[in-house]
Amino acid sequence: MLELRNVSKTYRSIPAVEDVSFLLKEGEVLGYLGPNGSGKSTTVKMVIGMIRPTKGEVLFDGREIHHDLAQYRSQLGYVPEEAQVYTHLSGLEYLQLIGRLRGMREGPLEDKARTLLQLLSLEAAQYSPMSGYSKGMKQRVLIAAALLHDPRLLVFDEPLSGLDAVTSRLFKDLLVVLAEEGKAILYISHVMEVVERVCDRVIVLAKGKVVADAAPRELTQLMELPTLESVFAQLVKQTDTMTVARDVVDTMKVLHD
Ligand code: ADP
Ligand code: MG
């Protein structure tokens, strides 16, 4: 369904993403992991057609997405990393706006928007301006907005940031059910939780390059490490956070003259 072929993106001669290739099929959940600054969001921006790759191409059903971006976007649901929403609108008004922009009919749109808001525990807040919503509430509106037009491809950039425990559990189950429904899901995260449970395949990115592409279980076996978390730390050569924590405290304790 979605294919990236040797995709690279360079910002003013600094590479952010280098030579990424993968195929995401229907019914598949692909985890796209890496530490902060490794190029995840840059990849996402190319996948949703917001920016063009410096090299390589993004294909949907075998066609380059920029040939007919509007048609492609009608098949795409995207939840951005930052909950940037029109805060003067209520949750319901926001979903109605998004639905109208996607050409949905008023009646079915309103029914669907209300039901999604209710399922995502936003019924009581549906008429209040989103300026008063918590980060998690805004995130849930964005998830509803991404699902509204029943897209075939879903892209979630760090979807769990700001979600409470109950909503994250619901979200994980939602991923499983969406995959069962045949949706293709690209799941971006910098943390391991969830990924082991819901992803069929995991791509690990470090400094813009793919350092691993395998099933979660294969990764742990391959590296002879007990958990995916330790594989991740090994692959991206994360700094020893305990050492950093001690250094921070040591620095804090330095007395001023
Ligand atoms: P991630 O989402 O994995 O945290 P990003 O894709 O946001 O990483 O960033 C990858 C690298 O590209 C970082 O070094 C970041 O500073 C750089 N970068 C991202 N966006 C821009 C931009 N618009 N201009 C210049 N550099 C950018
Ligand atoms: Mg990011």
Automatic annotation (TrEMBL):
Keyword Translocase: no
Gene3D superfamilies xref list: P-loop containing nucleotide triphosphate hydrolases
Domain of life: Bacteria
Regions crossing the membrane: none
Record bears the keyword Cell membrane: no
Keywords: ATP-binding, Nucleotide-binding, Transport
Domain ABC transporter, first and last residues per copy: 2-232
InterPro entries named among the record's database cross-references: AAA+_ATPase (IPR003593), ABC_transporter-like_ATP-bd (IPR003439), ABC_transporter-like_CS (IPR017871), ABC_Transporter_VariousFunc (IPR051782), P-loop_NTPase (IPR027417)
Name of the protein described by the UniProt record: ABC transporter related protein
